[in-house]
Amino acid sequence: MRLKSLVPALYILFLMLPIYWLVAMSFKTTNEILAGFSLFPQTWTLANYTEILTDPTWYWGYINSIIYVTLNTVISVLVALPAAYAFSRYTFVGDKHLFFWLLTNRMAPAAVFALPFFQLYSAVGLFDTHIAVALAHCLFNVPLAVWILEGFMSGVPKELDETAYVDGYSFPRFFVTIFLPSITAGVGVAAFFCFMFSWVELLLAKTLTAVAAKPIAAVMTRTASSAGYELGLLAAAGTLTIIPGAIVIYFVRNYIAKGFALGRV
Amino acid sequence: MAQITLSNLRHSYRPDPADDDDYALKKIDLTWDDGGAYALLGPSGCGKSTLLNIISGLLVPSEGKILFDDRDVTALPPAKRNIAQVFQFPVIYDTMTVYDNLAFPLRNRGRDEDIVKRRVTAIAEMLEVTGMLSTRASNLSPDNKQKISMGRGLVREDVNVVMFDEPLTVIDPHLKWKLRSKLKELHQRVRATMIYVTHDQTEALTFADQVVVMQDGEIVQIGTPVDLFERPAHTFVGHFIGSPGMNVLPCEVKGGAAFFGGEQVALEGPAGGAADGKAEVGIRPEFVSVSTTGGGIAAHVRKVADIGRHKVVEAIAHDSRIHAILEGDAPNAGDAVMLDFKRSQTRLYKDGWLASRPEGDVR
Amino acid sequence: MKKLNQRAWLFVTPVLLLVAFNALIPMMTVVNYSVQETFGDNLFFWQGIDWFEQVLTSERFHKALGRQFLFTFLILIIEVPLGVAIALAMPRQGFWVPFCLVTMALPMLIPWNVVGAMWNIFTLPDIGLLGYFMNHTLGIPYDMTQNPFAAWVTIVIMDVWHWTSLVVLLAYAGLVSIPNAYYQAAEIDGASGWAVFRFIQLPKMKTVLTIAILLRFMDSFNIYTEPFVLTGGGPGNSTTLLSIDLVKIALGQFDLGPAAAMSLIYFAITLLVSWLFYTLMTMNDNKS
């Protein structure tokens, strides 16, 4: 029994090591980093964090990321809800093909779309806006949200719909006051995944922005390459990008297992 | 095959049980005879599944011993006890064929393939699933799946006991009786000890030769279906078995006679039991007769329910509700009637336990 | 039975418009580029299938494709069994369950370039925790900017670090959905630990494992950011996977025609292999 719990313990240790190193680096001074190896910061410093939180090019990166991630999550879930309902409740001409086609977009390499996206969003005048990134991320998040929500909705008995109609509910009222509350877990999981994939994606976000909507992840790559060896600063910026994810995951912790199975267990 | 003895058994799911309430099973002493058909009957949460899991070895009791014949098996794991158990929901191995499912317990024990084949064929024959032997088990209907679960229990020739944990829960009503009579037939053919756990009195009474009634972790009565019906050892058994259950009326005992609302009620025989304590009279609705002219206790009819073969009359006398089952004509709601209790079926209970003895019984 | 209702199209229209805008228009652009040659100034010349022939016969593409398949193969062969093993060893209830789930999911919520940067810092030969440990404590020379083998080991371990949890969480979700009666019945039937895994746990995990394998295939086959930040495709071209090569051609060399043709071939391979996986894994379901 004890031997068995060693497996997840070792795995978690393995997961935590690089994260620990990133956090440890972020509290070291540049001199200490360049001087050589030290397991713990010898002189703790908050200088790296102070710089990030006082320099607009840094902290606007965070604000930009949070804006487009939130926009994307809201758009993805809102448009996915009615579609998922249609897939889970009705048969219609071409439903299977449509569902499959939606899923194929999840398979497209982002690298394939980088250049055409740049041209498309430039052409419609949305280049370097938050909404451009939010819309672009819908490419893979909307199919995923539809898929997750469809899984959860199919778990709700159809009798619920019929009872509501018999009781004289109109469709919109039924959907909002009865149906939605019964799949809140599904909505939470879908939102979580949209947040996750929008937050971690960089290639498209970087391609579609220049200054005004530049995501934090892109700010980091520029700093890393141009300013050379500012490892402490890079580590601090990286550490700060872990925090929103950690907060979000804490909120959905009880649904994680079921959520990752996309409601299909 | 073996006689199973439970001796001084207690079980608690808590690590440090303090008083009786912490125990899911409170002191069980019981012997199951070899080859018997038993039912373990009781409401949800009475401890019957706990008891079953202790016999099968899935649970180790906090205190006490389990003996198979004279062998102490308390510490043995399920696989070593040679028992079989059928669960509430059919447990089948989805990826295997029906044949492989039935052969699984034998193959795990390293039996020769020709023995496996002989046993599986015989069991499939008995269960009438011969035609499905090569289909994948996941494609079966729920009742057939449950049959396969039973078959896996019966396929080993040396099982000490086969236990059924509410096996008909997920089966369609019209197939239930079919499966139930199949079980009864199987018991007669294989003669293994069978313990059937259920909260359904019909299932228990039709399957078993001996019914063990449990409540709150205790055994209240062990007896034949007729015993349970006619002489419930406890008012709980009276309530639980029968539809509607036994009428239990508050009474006073003076000089060996029982008085309900001041009127004397003739008991089956001498009253015994503790001198003080709560006294009650118990009479089954089947033995209450209703008339407008005869003698008995005056009551008025509150309602009459026609449930097909007979009618259930609900009457009120001395603020107590009394049911009576009538065949044929019944009074109407609101009528004033006289209720007469059949004397030989009128029992006295003290603190819930049977306290009267039949006439002529000189214990 | 689901209702036949053509009004359902009304419900899917927003999704259709959004995904069509994002998928169809760029896809048409790619198709457009793939059959034409441009010298700038919006001048295009019909090229037919020349670019496709060029890509399909180029050694560079073959090598990148080979590296890509090797990478994805290693990822699947390591992460799927490892993830299942960890899920099997995880506690089923109690305080440690949410703790395990949250810490395990954490790597997946870190932006991909931060993952690359983090592993870069972690593996630096003299001041990274892993790099220092290998070079100075164990005395094994380890520098992934110099040694292709070290670079390969590092990107594979990085992906294992990043994504094994996905398999763990999916497999775990499958495992906790198995009713206790199955384990009890197996115990009574005298099944061995292996038989319990083979005949109870594995069949019940099948759906979620199908999802896990498909997702891990797609994502590892399309991987770009993490290895690009970590190794930049080097040393030499040793870790230049398909996406990295594609971006090099499209944005680095601005060879739009070949890049577009390569994109379509790339996409087609992803679709084809995904379909193959899916068909193979669900084949038994339809057999009665």
UniProtKB/TrEMBL annotation, chain A:
GO terms for cellular component: plasma membrane. Keywords: Cell membrane, Membrane, Transmembrane, Transmembrane helix, Transport. It is a multi-pass membrane protein. One of its GO terms (biological process) is transmembrane transport. It is found in: Cell membrane. CDD domains: TM_PBP2. Residues 62-252 form the ABC transmembrane type-1 domain. The keyword Magnesium does not apply. InterPro entries: BP-dep_ABC_trans_perm (IPR050901), MetI-like (IPR000515), MetI-like_sf (IPR035906). The chain crosses the membrane at residues 7-27, 66-87, 99-118, 130-153, 174-200, 231-252. PANTHER family: ABC TRANSPORTER PERMEASE PROTEIN, MALTOSE TRANSPORT SYSTEM PERMEASE-RELATED. Belongs to the binding-protein-dependent transport system permease family. This is Carbohydrate ABC transporter membrane protein 2 (CUT1 family). It comes from Roseibium marinum.
Automatic annotation (TrEMBL), chain B:
This is Glycerol transport system ATP-binding protein. It is found in: Cell inner membrane. The keyword Cell membrane applies. SUPFAM superfamilies: MOP-like (SSF50331), P-loop containing nucleoside triphosphate hydrolases (SSF52540). Keywords: ATP-binding, Cell membrane, Membrane, Nucleotide-binding, Transport. One of its GO terms (molecular function) is ABC-type ferric iron transporter activity. The keyword Nucleotide-binding applies. InterPro entries: AAA+_ATPase, ABC_transporter-like_ATP-bd, ABC_transpr_FbpC, ABC_transpr_MalK/UgpC-like, Mo/tungstate-bd_C_term_dom, NA-bd_OB-fold, OB_MalK-like, P-loop_NTPase. It comes from the Bacteria. Belongs to the ABC transporter superfamily. It is a peripheral membrane protein. GO terms for cellular component: ATP-binding cassette (ABC) transporter complex, substrate-binding subunit-containing. Residues 4-241 form the ABC transporter domain. Its main location: membrane. SMART domains: AAA.
UniProtKB/TrEMBL annotation, chain C:
It is found in: Cell membrane. The keyword Oxidoreductase does not apply. Residues 65-277 form the ABC transmembrane type-1 domain. One of its GO terms (biological process) is transmembrane transport. GO terms for cellular component: plasma membrane. It comes from the Bacteria. This is Carbohydrate ABC transporter membrane protein 1 (CUT1 family).
